[in-house]
């Protein structure tokens, strides 16, 4: 079949992100013998026009649309992408009657609401490599794909059943398959986004209360062999030149042997790779930090969420504040740059817990801190299920419309307090309270050849001084009106 795959993501902050998931789906569909073309809407000046032209030229039998982000998960400066996704589907419908298949992480979090909002013909919830190929085979045969695992049909009516779609999570998801980067402008992402991306495993065994990752990827790890990952990285460097890479795993450094094997293999082949990743403080000891640094890790995003034991417990984290501080110290000592990602205002938060987390962070002197004020609720997470069971949210209320929880006890206190922390520290990013980066600055920094995550620059006093200017006049209220948000 002639299949046109469309990457709908036009977000370029904090960076334009190469559509790795769609590249995997493209590779699987190509391997199955289909004729594949792609349209990437990220960079074009007239993306919808380009899309319509591509459809007219290629005359696809099926269109696959990748929907990565629901919204930017930041409050109150929320960016909701639904209208952009609607525009894409409308543009396609204007020029073809080919069925539209929806997929991607945003779609997988809310499959039924997206089917209804975008009027897709079919959808794939979860991983697409096998499910999409099976769907194409059914369409080619003229049989009904409904009932295939992961397939969502337009007849699904119960919007609240959004997380009930059984999905495919093959253990051998990567065997013999490389993302079809050749179909996309990968070098442009490396240039404009400062890095490429590679996935070494899927899944997460932890159970943090608000997190969608175990829903998306499952709660067991399905890892690739270190040799296979490094083969891919080596080929990337050969095909596209030496460049920085982000390992997109939910957390790279757990289980320990996985990251250690990966680092050993990078060192054994003397790759001189610069890479960064998400990490957990759990078991992040001196040896692991030093091994990662020697293997080329130059930036680690620690999903600490809080640095106060009570709040860590309420968030369902599997570590305490002392573990965070210890991991931070080991990383800094090993020469790794560390960015803590935090969530303030989740259920149970108090002024005291906010102050304690901030005090602990000050003492730890990390490279950067990215903090969200308010937690985005998604269907099916332990936190949403609990709030629904307690009658604090209504069934179906948490969906496509950005919906944030801000603990009433800290609602008035949080915005001013966090902005004062950011002003004092200079290395804080508050995406919901002040735009993290202007598109022009981001472009300029990349044009200057700066690669890897940009938060690493906050180690420089000049960058900290520039960052402080954003918080000179801290808002003591949430300030920014946004009619599309909802707060408890
Ligand atoms: C790594 C990561 C990042 C890194 C990316 C680094 C890099 N250079 O790649 C960074 C930190 C930069 C980042 C930034 C953001 N991220 Co992010 N990120 C992730 C993460 C952990 C992995 C994404 C990934 O690469 N997965 C691997 C690929 C292979 O999987 P995939 O894309 O899901 O694709 C599979 C399926 O979805 C499906 N599929 C995909 N497309 C299609 C198409 C069709 C037709 C079909 C049938 C199937 C299909 O098949 C694929 C293969 O199995 C996910 C969470 C997660 N565990 O998925 C969040 C996630 C994607 N991010 C999210 C968000 C919100 C963001 C930001 C908006 C946050 C912010 N405010 O800055 C930005 C947006 C950046 C941008 N320009 O778009 C959300 C998106 C959903 C949502 N909640 O809106 C996620 C799901 C996390 C969450 N909170 O739930 N992110
Ligand atoms: S927050 Fe991190 S460690 Fe916790 S469940 Fe999500 S991906 Fe796993």
TrEMBL record:
GO terms for molecular function: 4 iron, 4 sulfur cluster binding; catalytic activity; cobalamin binding; metal ion binding. InterPro entries: BchE-like, CHP04072_B12-bd/rSAM, Cobalamin-bd, Elp3/MiaA/NifB-like_rSAM, Methyltransferase_Class_B, rSAM, rSAM_horseshoe, rSAM_sf. The keyword Iron applies. Residues 1-146 form the B12-binding domain. PROSITE patterns: B12_BINDING, RADICAL_SAM. One of its GO terms (cellular component) is cytosol. It comes from the Bacteria. Its cofactor is [4Fe-4S] cluster. The keyword Transmembrane helix does not apply. Residues 190-418 form the Radical SAM core domain. Keywords: Iron, Iron-sulfur, Metal-binding, S-adenosyl-L-methionine. This is Uncharacterized protein.
